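Appendix B. Raw example, untouched.
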Amino acid sequence: MSSPAPSPTQALIGRLTSFDFATLPPDVVTAARHCIRDWLAVGIAGSTQDVTRLVRDEIFDRGGNPQATLLGAPKKVSAHDAALCNGTASHALDFDDVLETMLGHPSAPVLSAAMAVGEKIGATGAAVMTALVAGIETESFLGRLMEPGHHEAGWHTTATLGTFGATAAVAHLLRLNGDQFNHAFGLAGAQAAGMKVSFGTMAKPFHAGRAAANGVLAASLAQRGVTAAADTIEAPGGYAELTTDTLDRTAVSTLREDDYDIKRVLFKRHASCYLTHSLIEGLLQLRPLLGSDTRVVSAVHLHVLPVHLTTCNSETARTGLEGKFSMRFLAGLALVAGKASEQEFSDAWLNHPEIRRISELVQVVPDHIGAQMATPVEVQTIDGRMLRACVDMGIPASGRRVLDQQTRLVEKFDSLVEPVNGRGASTRLSELVQSFEHLEDVRTLMSYTRGRAGASVV
């Protein structure tokens, strides 16, 4: 008699426990290195934000064992609290990487958890990198299993699926066996939460920090022997059944040994919700055709998928955080400022008269375009011209474009890290990222992330 097919959870665990750095394909290693570089860049820059400072103050007040580094700070805290604070920091600017299959941000929760525990146990770079792959593959598989219903119901997937991803990463680092892994996922399901209503507030980056800390706790408790319901993800009354109406058990067929979704991670060029990047790029293409005066614009049409309407459709941006989720504000910003870096999400640009005028001219048109990220844009002018563009920023880099992606990530890294770390420590940190998989202990790299006062310059 043939054996029964494994459950989705068991099939996932079987794949995760088989991961070994020695068998990771070179393009997977490259993708993982890009995720690490981007996480460090946005995390170190995000360490200066108010939400990170407030979370850090709370952590300092309660104390704890000095096990892991806080990005941008000279003091070590417990691995759990480092994951909490660094997860918050790396999502504070909303400038971190994204993954379409999970409809969220993969590295903030996963790397914040893996790096904290990696420091605690003195893990090698190769071990942390493999844990990162395990975490992102988990998030992506759960996305294929549960989306789009989970996201459309109002759940913030960086928080929810990110908790499972962080758990998988730490469980892999701690070398949990299959049963322990299953219990760890059960403990992850007992904690995974986060709502899209938090978008545009400090609670959104806190979601990522909480997911990272949840993952550390779930895997660590499972290692100690704490048990939970088996196959929590897809069991009757389990996490998926409670949080999505589009559970797709056939997603198990996507767990292929020769394919890795980490290669599909996308990296932000603009400091806003990634769903807005295609419209920004399209409008930037049209901007030169308007001449030197945007007052010729009489109407702007953005053709978007339904997911845009529930994610980045804030009608009035009152704060920089809200601006990152306002297609109307971003359309005005793209046409007037010609860029959407972190510096543009300020009161000056939010209150810019011409940006406000264009924002009021924007019409968001629900459409079924086909490609997830493609956003056709139209700009009408007072002299009767209709300018059109359509850009799809949802296409992952491949082939020669991977080198272009690395170049952009190095530039992004330098621009975000040097103001916090100083040039010497930032240069050394960048060099260590480039050889991350050869590190004998990730503590070496993390010692260069503490900001000007805490960085070791040699």
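End of appendix B.
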